[in-house]
Each structure stands twice: as C-alpha cells, then as structure tokens.
Amino acid sequence: MSPVLFWDIDGTLLATGGAGMFAWNDAVKEHTGRDFDLKTAIRSAGFTDYQIGVRTFEVLGIPASSADVDRLVRRYEELLPASLFRKDGVVLPNVRAILERLRDDRPDVRSYLLTGNTAAGARAKLTHYGLWELLSRGAFCVDATARAGIAARALALARDEGPVPDGMAIVIGDTPHDIECANAVGARTLAVATGGYDLDELTSHRPWHGCAELPAPDDFLALISTAHAAGEPARRE
Fold first, then answer.
1. In the chain, where the domains are located
2. Superfamily of domain 4-16+89-236
3. What is the pLDDT of residue 43?
C-alpha cells in the first residue's frame, strides 16, 4: 500500500517572506481606500484566502457582500505575481528534494495540493519558486467556507484517480487548521513547525506526527511508509 499525500503551501512548501502581503494590502487599499497591514491585523496562518477577505472587512468595520470579498481576492491574485519579487522568500528545507525524489523514484506515491490559496494564487507562488512542475494538481480555496471542504475535494480527486487505502491519506501542513481539516476527512497529519506555529502548539492538536521541519528524503519516505500502522499517539522530532 502506498500513501497518498496532500500538501499545504505557505509555511509547508515555501515561505514568501511576507511578499504576498504586499499584494493583499495593495488590493485592500484599491478596494476600500483604507490602509491595511495584514501582518499585524490578522493571524492569517492557516486561513484560506477567502477567509482572510472576510476577516479583513470585519477588522476594517466595513460591511461586505460575498461579491465584495470575491473582488478583493481577484485583485490580490492579479497583484500577487509581481509582489513575490519584493521579498527574498525560500523553498523550505528538504521540500524540493522530497518532491523530486517522489517524482523520480516513487511514482506510486501520489501527491496533491490541499491549500487555502486560490488556484491562481497557488500557481503564482509555486511557479515563482520553481515547484509548479513538481506539484500542481489538487484542491484550492473557492469561497469562505471551512477548510474541511477543500480537504473533501482533494480526497475526492485522489479517489477519482486511484485507491486511497484506509489510514494512508496524509495531510502535510504547518497549522492546527491543517490538522483539523485532515481529521474532518479521516486523514492523518504530518505537522511541520516551519510556518506560524511552533512544535508544541502543533502537537497539542494531536497530529499523527510532528517535526521541526520536513526530514530528508530517505527519512521522509521511511516515515510515510509507516502510515498504515494504527493507533500511534502523536509523535514529534
């Protein structure tokens, strides 16, 4: 049995250094005429793009329809590619090596995106950091509903393309929101403390496994091969 992997983006695969916030803040300014600093206004790690949109209007005290939120998100998508050049972001440790190893040596291990980014936002980020050719299929944010809905769509896509054995769906993410959405669809979570939450915070939510960063490819493959074992408590490295 081979595991099926579902990858978050921000804080798991890469860190933009806050470059995406330039696009968001500029979009808010254009749409509302108000200055806004996403970094200080909202702890946005783990929020979907549309949830950030809803919360932005709430923080500003501006009533907003779903159409207002949609326009804000669409303008952010338009501004994002150029904004990514404004900071020196990084692909996080071992990510590229793992994805290349999976592509070259383990085609039986399928990988999908499970992200709170919109499809356009995800493509902009992954293209900028040279990961799009390694990981492009999956489920994306389409509205402000719970992240669990994205997980359900990602799992349905995977099942359309092949079997997903019990206990072998693994969500890889860096926030409690990733753990919660994995639990909602019966998946396990490999939680990595490379984003906005430390390892203690993550393991308090009882992921299947917690680590400071993704392990090297050999260790990563060894770890995910144990996913079929039932009943382990949360672990950390």
1. 4-16+89-236, 19-86
2. HAD superfamily/HAD-like (3.40.50.1000)
3. 85
Instruction: Please give the structure tokens belonging to residue 98.
Output: 């793992």
What confidence tens digit (pLDDT) does each residue in 211-227 have?
Answer: 999 999 999 999 999 98
φ, ψ of residue 188 in degrees (nearest 5): -95, 160
Domain 19-86: assigned CATH number: 1.10.150
Is 42:52 a contact under the CB 8 Å cutoff?
yes
Number of separate helices (H) and strands (E) present in the chain: 10, 9
Helix, strand, coil percent content, the chain, rounded in steps of 5: 45, 15, 40
Q: Give this prediction's pTM.
A: 0.94
What stretches of the chain show up as alpha helix (H) in DSSP?
A: 19-32, 38-41, 49-60, 66-83, 95-105, 119-128, 147-161, 176-184, 199-203, 217-224
Q: How many beta carbons lie within 10 A of that of residue 223, not counting itself?
A: 19
Mean pLDDT of 191-205: 96
Helix (H) or strand (E) holding 26: helix 19-32
pLDDT of 161 reads: 96
pLDDT of residue 231: 46
Q: Which of 89, 111, 90 is nearest to 100 (CA)?
A: 111
